[in-house]
Write a structure and sequence with these properties.
Length: about 140
């Protein structure tokens, strides 16, 4: 569930970022940079709750339990994920509810930074396990 939701939410988020910040429209009067930009935005918003729900699903038995047990393995990457989760989710929703343009830009900045770090942290959290398996095999 976590892999699938990260793929869907992170995937639509990265494609949307590419369309917003890197694609240049061919028509100088276009209001969107890419013809599929609105659909990508809608998809991102529609799949986002799946990641929020899945994080809630693993919260008690994985996150809270590993922390309470004093688990050393993957601790740093796991705690990075914990600290990024709330600002990433909250900023996503504040982008939509902020009226003032300055605040909207602030929340977009927070969302891009925390979401980017989340994806890197998530990959690192998985890679730590792979590294351990390799060293045990050796
Ligand atoms: C996992 C990595 C994620 C990436 C790479 C990502 C990327 C993005 C990008 C590029 C934007 C557009 C910012 C702009 O308007 O300039 C955005 C907006 C948004 N994101 Fe994410 N995001 C991620 C995770 C999430 C999560 C977990 C949520 C759940 C709350 C979420 C909810 C939203 C919402 C609601 C918007 C506002 C859409 C709008 O009205 O324009 N995102 N995201
Ligand atoms: C929101 C935070 C977190 C998320 C989304 C997350 C996600 C994951 C995922 C997807 C796996 C791989 C499971 C598999 O391959 O079957 C994993 C494994 C692991 N994580 Fe986390 N994790 C989080 C927080 C933490 C924390 C805080 C710790 C430690 C204090 C931790 C320690 C571990 C350990 C030891 C493993 C390997 C053993 C296992 O699967 O339980 N994680 N985590």
């Amino acid at each position: 569930m976590l892999h699938v939701s990260n793929l869907l939410v992170g995937g639509t988020g990265l494609v949307y970022a590419w369309m917003l910040y890197l694609v240049k429209p061919t028509d100088p009067y276009a209001v969107v940079n890419h013809p599929w930009q609105p659909q990508t935005q809608h998809l991102h918003i529609l799949v986002a709750p799946l990641l929020v729900f899945t994080a809630g699903l693993v919260w008690r038995r994985h996150v809270w339990a590993q922390w309470k047990r004093g688990m050393e393995e993957r601790r740093r990457s796991g705690l990075s994920l914990v600290s990024l989760l709330v600002p990433m989710i909250v900023s996503g929703y504040l982008i939509q509810t902020s009226v003032d343009d300055r605040w909207r830009r602030i929340w977009v900045g927070v969302h891009l930074a925390t979401a980017g770090l989340w994806l890197l942290g998530y990959l690192a959290h998985q890679a730590m396990g792979y590294r351990r398996v390799k060293s045990v095999q050796r």
